Amino acid sequence: MSSSIPSPPPTTLSTITLPDSTTIFYRTAGSPSHPPLVLLHGFPSSSHQYRHLLPALSKTHHVLAPDLPGFGFTTCPSTYTYTFASLTETLLAFLDALQISRFAVYIFDYGAPVAFRLALQRPHAITAIISQNGNAYLEGLVPTFWAPVQKYWTSNSATDREYLLENILTLAATKWQYESGTPAAKLASIAPETYTLDYALMCRDGNKDIQLDLLRDYQTNVALYPRFQAWMRERQVPLLAIWGEHDVAFAAEGAWAFRRDLPGAEVVLVDAGHFALETEGERIAGEVRGFLGRVGGLEDGF
Fold first, then answer.
1. Calculated CA dihedral for residues 24, 288, 197, 274, nearest 10 degrees
2. Catalytic center residues
3. Which residue, 119, 143, 210, 250, could crosslink 70 as a Cys pair with Cβ 3.0–4.6 Å?
């Protein structure tokens, strides 16, 4: 008598070349007939961080996770300018190429300002938001993490740029981002290929300069926080903030702050750090499925 272990729904790996010659690498799961859900990764990762979440959400949604320019396996022409404005334009071109005009979005870290910038350009495109440590409020910025970055914003000096290169863009710092804030009993759950892949891709020729340029440009996102918040107040988009409460970069205060502009926002804190999916993936997937089930009818009417 034989038995078999059910296979998870398949994830498809694809590329698409945009008119500016940027080639986007992206992962998908679920039927294209389902409502679209776009997963936007953060620094210093890629769509790889969603390798388990994609199939977990694919029964009800067509889930897409692109690698943003400068990350993962997306490639850009040598003339590409690495700013958050450019990342947003590239995401728009990617969605247009796939004929996706309205979608729910899962935002994390850098993915948050990219999604909110998109919302400013297309106010009705986003039907629901899941923010997993995706910040849009000043109180969400942890001072000890952001102080050297903010110093670089002010000075734009070679010395401060070099400090970030030597203290943030290293294998040790990348591993630290995954492990810090994670309960000791769960550290072994963090797969070493996560931070190893992130750092290997960061070590490609010219990529550390790209990361430094984006760290400097992050200040333009902070300047846009009031506009992001105004969009939320106007649209009252359904939002779930599910947050690793021990995040060393984005404090849990940033999760609760969403309720100022979205009184109906759902807030769930999990016992995890920045990369909460690595240790709380099943819990987060369940919360996301429940949230999307509650707001599922809005894809067509919101």
1. 120
2. 274
3. 210
**Reduced 3-state DSSP string for 163-217:** HHHHHCCCHHHHHHHHHCCCCHHHHHHCCHHHHHHHHHHHCCCCHHHHHHHHHHH
Q: Which two tokens stand for residue 14?
A: 């694809």
Prediction pTM value: 0.95
